[in-house]
Amino acid sequence: MFRLVFGRDLPPLGADMMADGYDRDGAPYMRTLQGERVKSLEECVIADWLFYNGVAYDYERRYEFDTATDTHRQYRPDFYYPDAQLYHEHFALDADGQPPKHFANYSEGMHWKRQQHAARGTALVETTSFGLRSGQALQHLAERLGASGVELDPNPDRELPDQGAKPMPDADLIGLMRTFIAHAKSNCLTLDDMAARLRQMPEDQFKERYRRFLEIAGPVFQAWDNALADERSIDFEDMLNMAAGLLEQGHYESPYELVMADEFQDASRARTRLCRALVSQPGRHLFAVGDDWQSINRFAGADVSVMTGFREWMGHGQVLKLEQTFRCPQALCDVSSRFISRNPAQIAKAVRSAAPTMGPVLQAFQMNRREEVQDGVRQYLAKLHQQLLSGAVPQGRNGRVTVFVLGRYRADRGAVPSDWKTAFGSTMDVEFLTAHRSKGREADYVILPGMINRSFPSLRADDPVLSLAMPDGDTYPLSEERRLQALAVPG
């Protein structure tokens, strides 16, 4: 059920959602497994739960009585269940039964809807945003459907319509669990510890989603540890924690006067704990180099809080900031710096560029459909090719410029025209890389072809469920995706 129904986290009540698309009027919508366009992610979760359980429903079907007046449009309840002759309204209410403050006249609208059902004798079930987050709403809905003669038929393999939304892929769920387990072990957290953290989470978080994730990740976590024990083996996180433990307990004395750690922004808590233990005795020193703006390896266990909270981990020390770059012009530095600095947890820096500026440093092109992206890349390369031939823009080293096409995933490779060498190879070298692989590389021109939902940003890499295993991790929304995109922009 997690893949199909709970694959996406809910934003705070009343906050803007990351939509699947927009209608002709610019209103956002979400796409359900069954293929409808619904107005909110909460409604999408409910619709997908209904689909998973085989419950027939109509979304915003016209109410069976005429209600249109000078002050009200024709009433269309959120859901209708024909097999139960039951209407369903989902209200945006918090734990205190209050709507978001900026929802004008919302309470009056709820009262009017309730009046329609009471006056006309139609059955209504209500759920709320708080109830959906806590798990009470779906339980209540299941009970009302059951009382009306509708049996749930849960089936994770139910055939999806062609126009329906695609559920979380198996590979993404496996990767999420592996990242979760790596962070849990790095932080020496047990399943009981994480269950306790779940209970302590604020009520406005999607706790039902986190609970269901623990239900599937917990047994995997336990089975992994059992398999290691059966083989009398340890994994990498075990090795780091055991080594740090031996040092902390005085069973081993570090012989090193100076420990140097590179790429410290990608250190896990277990690695950081080991570094600290190695220099805990007087006369020992740690020299760490890192850039919290480039922390993009959370999937491998990295925890940016060890960099942003360095003094809390290591105590007082000298901090030197390297704020000059030669990679990109100042205008591009300013754009990426403003973008990443929206996260207040990032260490403040004033990046100055020594690179010259030539022409517009940032351009945006809009395609109507995903299938047009490769043609858009081709058009840009063709224009650049002509400018290089005419001398309008300078040639690069060895007579050719370098062009990176950076995708969020390897599957984005299709954005690169297959005939680029024949068409443009005399003036440029084009290379595809994932954004992660581009770290440390440079190019004269960078193309980001995947600036669309579920590409940039990825909702998997920054999944909030990881907060269960990262006690002091970065909680800013999509923080790592923000860093990854800012890293990709300079090239």
TrEMBL record:
<dbReference type="GO" id="GO:0016787">
    <property type="term" value="F:hydrolase activity"/>
</dbReference>
<dbReference type="InterPro" id="IPR014016">
    <property type="entry name" value="UvrD-like_ATP-bd"/>
</dbReference>
<dbReference type="GO" id="GO:0003677">
    <property type="term" value="F:DNA binding"/>
</dbReference>
<dbReference type="InterPro" id="IPR000212">
    <property type="entry name" value="DNA_helicase_UvrD/REP"/>
</dbReference>
<feature type="domain" description="UvrD-like helicase ATP-binding">
    <location>
        <begin position="1"/>
        <end position="329"/>
    </location>
</feature>
<dbReference type="GO" id="GO:0005524">
    <property type="term" value="F:ATP binding"/>
</dbReference>
<keyword id="KW-0347">Helicase</keyword>
<keyword id="KW-0378">Hydrolase</keyword>
<keyword id="KW-0067">ATP-binding</keyword>
<protein>
    <submittedName>
        <fullName>DNA 3'-5' helicase</fullName>
    </submittedName>
</protein>
<dbReference type="InterPro" id="IPR027417">
    <property type="entry name" value="P-loop_NTPase"/>
</dbReference>
<dbReference type="GO" id="GO:0005829">
    <property type="term" value="C:cytosol"/>
</dbReference>
<dbReference type="GO" id="GO:0043138">
    <property type="term" value="F:3'-5' DNA helicase activity"/>
</dbReference>
<keyword id="KW-0547">Nucleotide-binding</keyword>
<dbReference type="Pfam" id="PF00580">
    <property type="entry name" value="UvrD-helicase"/>
</dbReference>
<dbReference type="GO" id="GO:0000725">
    <property type="term" value="P:recombinational repair"/>
</dbReference>
